Amino acid sequence: MASRKGCVLCNGERRALVKIPSTLAPSCKECFFLHLENNVYNTIVRHALFKPGDRVAIAASGGKDSTVLAHVMTTLNKRHKLGLDLFLLSIDEGITGYRDDSLETVKRNEQQYGVPLKIVSYEELYGWTMDAIVKQIGLKNNCTFCGVFRRQALDRGAAMLKVDHIVTGHNADDIAETVLMNIMRGDFARLQRCTAIQTATDETIPRSKPFKYTYEKEIVMYAYFKKLDYFSTECIYSPNAYRGYARAFLKDLESIRPSAILDIIHAGEWYQSAQQVKINVPVAGGAGCGGTCVRCGYMSSSGLCKACVLLGGLDRGRPRRAIAADAE
Ligand SMILES: Nc1ncnc2c1ncn2[C@@H]1O[C@H](COP(=O)(O)OP(=O)(O)OP(=O)(O)O)[C@@H](O)[C@H]1O
């Protein structure tokens, strides 16, 4: 990584220590930090993600992406006087030896960044921990439960905090992988949606990805050089082999052509479906055509929300049938 060359960003004022992963430009540490922060700031401004006075929840898992996001959001909020009221929002899925440890990191981040933390658990919301779910259904398909529950839990936690906005640490690599996975599954209807910087309906709290154009390698380097306090173990229940193949393929492409990650994101953004394919978007209760879940009262486009369909299967001891029903 080290180089005797001068940094190209400050015209050789300082020695280059890193190569910026997206461009391979030799850069000093200071310019690299500014490069990443300005990239995120430009993304926020270009897409008008926030307005002064907004309450914003940073979805914080304790992992590198959301820890760097918390650091960069607090830095930009001060530097550019964005006027945001920031919060950390963590979901405790109930995974012993993984989430309990990572939540300790988030608790330290609360002190380090001076941003208040709210933790919401699957156990309090659903009466199940992921440990108990995996005990019942095994490792296969457990990510389906976790993904559905986490999405809803983040919404519920955000509503408790009365925030206007949720930001997540999804980075450019994550998004490019999802584009590739949707192509490999032939799910073209989701291509545009998975590259959207913000997802929201009139009734849901907007959720956005300020790291949409930030490479994972940049985030890792930023965390390393800034010596940030983050938790680096992979989830013990998450084999997710399919995404692993997409990731390996993307890394191969990146090694030949660093711009491949952004190119894939842009391809997804520009993709226009030849056929109009309607995606089932959940809407909040009361207003409009959707309504609320008859069991928990949460927004749902059909009688039962996805979480309650899955919970019903768990409670009846037939979780696989619930997964099949959810996929229909
Ligand atoms: N338990 C959680 N509580 C709060 N937010 C979460 C949680 N799990 C994931 N997220 C949010 O979703 C984003 C993507 O999550 P994913 O599981 O893909 O982890 P990741 O890419 O390893 O990110 P990180 O490094 O932040 O853990 C995270 O960056 C974070 O913003």
UniProtKB/TrEMBL annotation:
Keywords: Cytoplasm, RNA-binding, Transferase, tRNA processing, tRNA-binding. Pfam families: ATP_bind_3, zn-ribbon_14. Its EC number is 2.7.7.-. It is found in: Cytoplasm. Residues 291-320 form the Cytoplasmic tRNA 2-thiolation protein 1 C-terminal domain. Belongs to the TtcA family. CTU1/NCS6/ATPBD3 subfamily. Plays a central role in 2-thiolation of mcm(5)S(2)U at tRNA wobble positions of tRNA(Lys), tRNA(Glu) and tRNA(Gln). Directly binds tRNAs and probably acts by catalyzing adenylation of tRNAs, an intermediate required for 2-thiolation. It is unclear whether it acts as a sulfurtransferase that transfers sulfur from thiocarboxylated URM1 onto the uridine of tRNAs at wobble position. Prior mcm(5) tRNA modification by the elongator complex is required for 2-thiolation. May also be involved in protein urmylation. PANTHER family: ATPASES OF THE PP SUPERFAMILY-RELATED, CYTOPLASMIC TRNA 2-THIOLATION PROTEIN 1. This is Cytoplasmic tRNA 2-thiolation protein 1. The lineage of its organism: Eukaryota, Fungi, Fungi incertae sedis, Chytridiomycota, Chytridiomycota incertae sedis.
